[in-house]
Design brief:
- The protein is of the alpha+beta class.
- It has a single domain, classed as SecB-like (Bacterial Protein-export protein SecB).
- It contains 4 helices and 4 strands; from the N terminus they run αββββααα.
- It has a 4-stranded antiparallel β-sheet with strand order 1-4-3-2.
- β2 and β3 form a beta hairpin.
- α1 crosses α4 and α2 packs across α3.
- The chain is elongated.
- It starts with a helix and ends in a 12-residue tail after the last helix.
């Protein structure tokens, strides 16, 4: 996938708003205080869901839950759910949605989840949970490469058509 193809796919859908949809936080430290120097071992469980709200709008919900390993102290239960609203310059077809969710959900919503989780765990006075940064791979395996650029080109063509812009063949400057 070339840089132009990646830019077309990424820029075809823009994040317009992020909303904190739900927080479930139960502090267990009053009943079971952590021993000094106790090591807390956790993993992060994530889930994505989406809903197309109009032909050019998509909502993507990202949910994160802190899961403790059985041998670890469990100072609190935490679930955070955020919703990102996205707008496209052209109608989004149903076959494009999975690729758009994969390129626009966690990469753009992850920093919000990361900050909310870190802030909440800092404020309750227990061990601070800082989830790692997300590594984004813009070079998908060769089997995936043909579908995303083609979808990006189709979306760009529909956007030009919707705006009444000339096609790529007719954009040469006048002599």
């Amino acid at each position: 996938m070339s840089v132009i193809d990646v830019a077309t796919v990424i820029n075809s859908l823009q994040l317009t708003a992020v909303a904190l949809n739900r927080v479930e936080l139960v502090n267990h430290q009053d009943e079971n205080p952590l021993a000094p120097g106790a090591e807390v071992k956790w993993t992060l469980e994530t889930n994505l869901a989406y809903r197309q709200t109009s032909p050019t709008e998509l909502r993507i919900k990202a949910t994160a839950r802190i899961q403790y390993q059985p041998e670890s102290p469990q100072p609190f239960d935490l679930l955070v759910e955020i919703v990102g609203s996205y707008a496209a310059s052209a109608p989004i077809s149903g076959d494009e949605i999975p690729a758009l969710v994969n390129t626009h959900s966690l990469p753009l919503l992850w920093p919000y989840l990361r900050e909310i989780i870190s802030d909440l765990t800092t404020r309750i006075g227990g061990p601070v949970v800082t989830i790692p940064t997300l590594q984004i791979n813009l070079n998908p395996p060769a089997a995936e490469a043909p579908s995303e650029p083609e979808a990006g080109r189709k979306r760009a063509k529909r956007a030009r058509k919707a705006r009444g812009s000339p096609s790529e063949q007719n954009t040469a400057p006048d002599p």
